């Protein structure tokens, strides 16, 4: 049974896909970096769109590569030794000054491919479990250590919700556990404000922070961030993917800042509040 598993074209194709993505992910990161340099002075919405597109490409490339490699593996007479996809990959590695010779690579690498796939699967499972625990912890925040806002704050919050034109009115809660404002949830969003900010900021500053969180809800950033995290888990091994994801998060914050400034009307005061 173990022999059948290790000789499976699925494991071989998966490993080859991961290896191919090493150069594919690097190429995507280089293209995005060049694009962001060109659009350095443009609005963050444009830079965010390019970053999101790069992240989407990072997700699609392994899927397409796996389909192509798997079909090649299945159609080969010898699934591992004479695989066209494998031979093509070996040709890419074949260099005169390489640490290993072509013969050593061709003999050793096929034996390691299933183990590489299993290592990837094990790591993804661990990271996914960690994400599930984090989501569960965050989802419980509205039920733990929270109090209702004052009538005055709730009324002003409702006015800001209408001002920013949200289709769904989020819940507003004062949290004794969080240290920074948070907007969590997608279908039933909740805005959590740290208790120390209620007393430490004036009303104008507090409204600016609320507008920032409402902007995240308006843009559905909670859902996008969740999907983005899934891509990070699947491609955890590639620093280029992590860099693209970081650019997405940075530009997402700038986009929310722009919306908040647009509605509060004072960019300088907003910057001082942050």
Descriptive report:
This protein has 11 helices and 4 strands. With 274 residues, the protein is mainly alpha-helical. Strands 1-2-4-3 form a 4-stranded mixed sheet. The longest helix is centred in the middle third of the chain and has 38 residues, at 102-139. The protein is elongated and about 70 Å long.
Short key terms for the protein model shown above:
274 residues, mainly alpha, four-stranded mixed β-sheet, 72% helix, elongated
**Overall 3D shape:** elongated
Whole-number radius of gyration?
Answer: 24 Å
Main sheet attributes: strand count, strand direction, barrel closure: 4 strands, mixed
The helix content is over 70%
Global mean pLDDT: 84
Continuous helix count? 11
Concise summary:
This protein is mostly helical. Helix content is 72%, strand content 5%. The chain has a 4-stranded mixed sheet with strand order 1-2-4-3.
